[in-house]
Amino acid sequence: MFFFFKLETVLREVRYLEIKDRKDIPKAALDIYKDNDTFLSYINNLNYTITSYNKIRETVAEVEYPLIDRQIQAIDHQLSDAENKLTWSTSGIGDYILRTRSMVFDLEQRLQKSKNNILEIQSIMATWSKSPLYERASARSGGTAEKQTSGDSLLILSDLDERLNKRYREIRDAGERIHSLVRDNRQYLQVDENNSNTSEYWKAYVEYIDEMITDGFYAIIQCDLEFFRQETDRKNVPDPLFQILLEVHVKSITTYRFSFIFFCFCFSHLKCYLLHLLKQMHPMVSLILLIILLQIHINKPHLFHV
Predict the structure, then answer these.
(1) What is the C-alpha separation between 51 and 201, in angstroms, rounded?
(2) How many whole angstroms separate alpha carbon 102 and alpha carbon 44?
(3) Angle subtended by helix axes 4-19 and 36-59, to nearest 10
(4) Are 45 and 101 in contact (CB under 8 A)?
(5) Confidence check: pLDDT of 248 > 60
(6) Could you read off the pLDDT of 44-80 as tens digits, one per residue?
(7) Backbone angles phi, psi at 8, to 5 degrees
(8) pTM assigned to the model
(9) How far apart, in whole angstroms, are the C-alpha atoms of residue 129 and residue 120?
(10) Measuring CA to CA, how many Å separate 69 from each of 106, 107, 128, 207, 208?
(11) What is the pLDDT of residues 10-36, one digit of tens each?
């Protein structure tokens, strides 16, 4: 039955000969051409089935294949009858072609939906990877070319708590959305968790998504650290990030320890935010991050505007 390309050629040639009003068309070809519309419907459905089947085979990821292996085997079994037994004149051939198309199309659509969900998860994790939590006042004002006062380029800390809370809410809501997408994928891929083998494959699939999310968190942290790296690099001749005030009184002079203010005030929010993101990760990551912050504190005294 899968020699339908030859059938399509015969139908096309007979149609051409009829247009030319040829009288020498073979009777066998004319008999076939009587069911031209039916055969064309079969051919269109078969072409559609082949396209969907090839898409499954070409796009399925290594971590996805074990989850749909049985479904692919069922389709292959269905196709084996067409390869070995069925002919164009077999009774019920039209219904068979439609059933086969439905099986293949259903799997192809469910697999594509699961892939779309993976893309959405990647998009969610990329939301904050290009927008640092911290910014200068000049950036918020649009970076106009007019001459700015010294305070116009300082780091904005007045609404930092509000920004932190907003970021926490966004990440929490994103987590709920990701959990929902993973549950949908379990249905799309028809995962049977009662099957021990399938359960292991599903676990590997979830770990694949976890790695994707972990990479997203690293990108978020890197974005914030990169902001401070660029804003404290001497080569860039950066403006001060902070302003320290010295209050002088008649009976006493109140001073503030420079390093204490820097560590406790300037980076306390950043440290809490990063530790919140990293609390489920390897403890060495948090330690390295704190060492980086401390090195910035020691090596960048020009950050301050007095």
Answers:
(1) 27
(2) 13
(3) 140
(4) yes
(5) yes
(6) 888 899 999 999 999 999 999 999 999 999 999 998 8
(7) -60, -40
(8) 0.69
(9) 15
(10) 15, 11, 36, 19, 18
(11) 666 666 666 666 666 666 665 565 666
Structure token pair of residue 253: 């002079």
Q: Where are the domains of the chain?
A: 4-107, 126-142+151-305
pLDDT greater than 80 at residue 143: no
Q: Is it the case that residue 287 has pLDDT exceeding 50? A: yes
